[in-house]
């Protein structure tokens, strides 16, 4: 059998970065997995369709453990393979993943997250006070609210000093959308150096924060995080703990602006519709376009298509949640839809630990915006908005609004 052709995503859709959904739908119509070239020039395999994506996310032959990957395939190169920043649970399979998640999961229980609501509300109110001050009635919603809200929350939760948060924004931007290998390696080194100093300080002088708790957490069997595992866990929480929410808020507001009938429905009945609206935002244009990469440890057949061993595999969460086999009229944004069953936060072992926090922040931010900014609307050509590059995160760098 001849090898599958490599399909260029940008050739399939010149507007792929802004609107990948028609390309994914066309691929899905042909089968559940395809050998593709990304807009950045990387060749990999991509899984589409709700059923196939759910199956891929729990397939043990698709590893997340970098220790099982041939060094030649290592996405961070040989120089970055041993970084303590890569020891976190997102880069481990069971049983290692299970052990690491257990040591931090109790800090993210729904009850504990619900207890953060008053503080999240106060942070949101302060950010909106600053945005509304001066009477300009215009702002970049990403810079004014969508970014600083979750960054402030996760940094306060972990105990990161306010003076260091701008550095984390630069580091996070590079990690989720790398510009080049050398800069990515430098970012990992800088973050690891910083986190070593911070964890040492928390070990010497514990405070009432999550990092201090993690430093001293011991489970009932006496297990605890090693020094490198602690750095890896904090690295993951800082990056994943805000990037998802930034794009949940940004993408959700873009969807409301593009569908004014839905915006008016939500304004008229926030108590009855807000929870469902957040789920529909996640389904319709979620913050994560594809799940973090997996690698085949052996030849795998998806549908009727063989995928070789050692291949990079991306699972298209964005397409799974636009699959008409799962959601009727999936390209319609409808905040009254029952959007349960979407996989915007993943599925299975690696389901997002921070999903309750992202939902809480999204609900509070969207409600406060609609209450305090009558007439809020987009203040730019939607087609000209600058997008975050790459296939991992789906969102815009800026979102100009007026009210």
From TrEMBL:
Keywords: Heme, Iron, Metal-binding, Monooxygenase, Oxidoreductase. It holds the Pfam family p450. PROSITE patterns: CYTOCHROME_P450. It comes from the Bacteria. The keyword Oxidoreductase applies. Belongs to the cytochrome P450 family. SUPFAM superfamilies: Cytochrome P450 (SSF48264). This is Cytochrome P450. PANTHER family: CYTOCHROME P450 YJIB-RELATED (PTHR46696:SF1), P450, PUTATIVE (EUROFUNG)-RELATED (PTHR46696). It comes from Streptomyces luteolus.
């Amino acid at each position: 059998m001849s090898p599958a052709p490599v399909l260029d995503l940008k050739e399939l859709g010149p507007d792929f970065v802004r609107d990948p959904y028609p390309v994914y739908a066309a691929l899905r119509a042909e089968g559940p997995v395809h050998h593709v070239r990304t807009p950045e020039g990387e060749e990999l395999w991509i899984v589409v369709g709700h059923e196939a994506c759910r199956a891929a996310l729990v397939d043990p032959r698709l590893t997340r453990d970098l220790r099982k990957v041939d060094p030649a395939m290592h996405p961070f190169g040989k120089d970055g393979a041993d970084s303590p920043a890569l020891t976190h649970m997102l880069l481990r399979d069971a049983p290692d993943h299970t052990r690491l998640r257990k040591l931090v999961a109790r800090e993210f229980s729904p009850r504990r997250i619900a207890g953060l609501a008053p503080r999240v509300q106060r942070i949101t109110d302060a950010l909106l006070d600053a945005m509304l001050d001066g009477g300009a009635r215009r702002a970049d919603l990403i810079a004014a609210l969508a970014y600083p809200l979750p960054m402030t929350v996760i940094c306060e939760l972990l105990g990161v000093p306010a003076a260091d948060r701008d550095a984390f924004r630069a580091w996070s931007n590079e990690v989720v959308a790398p510009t080049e290998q050398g800069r990515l390696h430098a970012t990992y080194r800088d973050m690891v150096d910083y986190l070593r100093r911070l964890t040492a300080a928390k070990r010497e002088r514990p405070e009432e924060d999550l990092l201090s708790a993690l430093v001293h957490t011991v489970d009932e069997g006496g297990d605890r995080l090693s020094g490198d595992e602690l750095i890896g866990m904090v690295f993951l929480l800082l990056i994943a703990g805000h990037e998802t929410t930034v794009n949940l808020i940004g993408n959700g507001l873009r969807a409301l602006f593009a569908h004014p009938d839905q915006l008016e429905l939500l304004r008229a009945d926030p108590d009855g519709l807000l929870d469902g609206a957040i789920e529909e935002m996640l389904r319709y244009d979620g913050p994560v376009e594809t799940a973090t990469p997996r690698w085949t440890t052996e030849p795998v057949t998806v549908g009727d298509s063989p995928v070789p061993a050692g291949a990079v595999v991306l699972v298209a969460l964005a397409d799974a949640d636009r699959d008409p086999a799962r959601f009727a009229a999936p390209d319609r944004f409808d905040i009254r839809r029952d959007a349960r069953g979407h996989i915007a936060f993943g599925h299975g072992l690696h389901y997002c630990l921070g999903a309750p926090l992202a939902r809480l922040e999204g609900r509070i931010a969207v409600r406060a915006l609609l209450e305090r900014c009558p007439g809020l609307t987009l203040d730019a050509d939607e087609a000209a908005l600058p997008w975050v590059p790459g296939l991992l995160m789906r969102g815009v760098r800026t979102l100009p609004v007026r009210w």
